[in-house]
Amino acid sequence: MKAEGIPLINLSVFNSHDLPSNPSSIETLVEEIRDACKNLGAFQVINHGVPLEKREKLEMTSRKFFAQSTEERLRVREDEANPVGYYDSLFTKNVRGWKEVLDPMVKNPIVIPASHEAGDNGLKEVVNRLPEYPSELREACEEYAEEMEKLAHKLLELISLSLGLKANRLSGFFNDHTSFTKLVHYPSCPIPHLALGISQHKDAGALTILAQDNVGGLQVKRKADGEWIHIKPTPHAYIVNVGDTIQVWSNDRYESVEHRVMVNSEKERFSMPFSVNPDHNVMIPKYGIFENIDSLRELAQMLQWTPEKPLRVATGFTHMGIADAIVDLVIRGATLRANNFKEIEGVIITPVNSLLT
Ligand SMILES: O=C(O)CCC(=O)C(=O)O
Ligand SMILES: [Fe+2]
């Protein structure tokens, strides 16, 4: 099924919170996820198990929050020290988009790197800044986030399976996740031809699970022909975008999708993207996660591996197939540095020169 060029995936076989015990019952579903992630990097899900009343409650509180005076909204404005809260970019000559946002985190507080500077190992604590009005906003956010976490878990399991990995392969990366909900308001815009709600970008996290209202404006870029596809609102559905983190974990099998939001002169629009982000200290290996000998061989080929370009291999050595693959590489003359091996589940391979200090 398609909804205006974007696959529409029915999750009903997966509706309880656990994976069905019979793997063949979800084979088709896993295939659909694989095709959607490969071809577009985005899809919509229906029968996703998220109760409609939780979504509607948060949508209502979001509308109430943004309907307040500018002064009230600015009371919870984020700043450099604590980059969580309200921000708007309405008055910045549209380069940053015709929108305003409130972005509460799921876990509160969270600890994140103090800066993006290489070599800065400092950490800082970030706390949610939530408004007093509407009074039900905090509860609505918490209840909604709980549902989003469950859906995210299902989607990550399906994506793992679709990559030939165990269903729970990615779960361990999300114990102290840094996911957050974004309440976004795009006011109607008198100069829609000169502005964008959000200009073309990719999301950095693992996935984004997005609820949009019935106005429309989101577009995703189809890699095959560079065409922008309008995502027509499907009532109660969620749009799922593949982010950069999944792109890396999947060794580019799935690419994060470029998207943007158009604005219009008549209607304001509300959306609620939920960013599914791993723990801040999770290592995102440059060449993905491999659990079988074929993918390791494929990688060696992809890297045009030669003895002059040695690889560093890190592995738990629990999997005979992997050990065989390493032997295979050794036979081809690789310089393997056994004392550099780290005991990490699965296999991570990176060219030596980018890892050695
Ligand atoms: O509002 C939307 O439809 C998309 C928002 C988005 O892409 C983002 O916040 O990263
Ligand atoms: Fe986005």
TrEMBL record:
Keywords: Iron, Metal-binding, Oxidoreductase
Pfam families attached to this UniProt entry: 2OG-FeII_Oxy (PF03171), DIOX_N (PF14226)
Gene3D superfamilies: B-lactam Antibiotic, Isopenicillin N Synthase, Chain, Periplasmic binding protein-like II
GO molecular function: dioxygenase activity; metal ion binding; oxidoreductase activity, acting on paired donors, with incorporation or reduction of molecular oxygen
InterPro entries per record: DIOX_N, IPNS-like_FE2OG_OXY, IPNS-like_sf, Oxoglu/Fe-dep_dioxygenase_dom
Domain Fe2OG dioxygenase, first and last residues per copy: 176-278
Domain of life: Eukaryota
Assigned protein family: Belongs to the iron/ascorbate-dependent oxidoreductase family.
Identification of the protein by name: Fe2OG dioxygenase domain-containing protein
UniProt source species: Rhododendron griersonianum
Origin organism lineage: Eukaryota, Viridiplantae, Streptophyta, Embryophyta, Tracheophyta
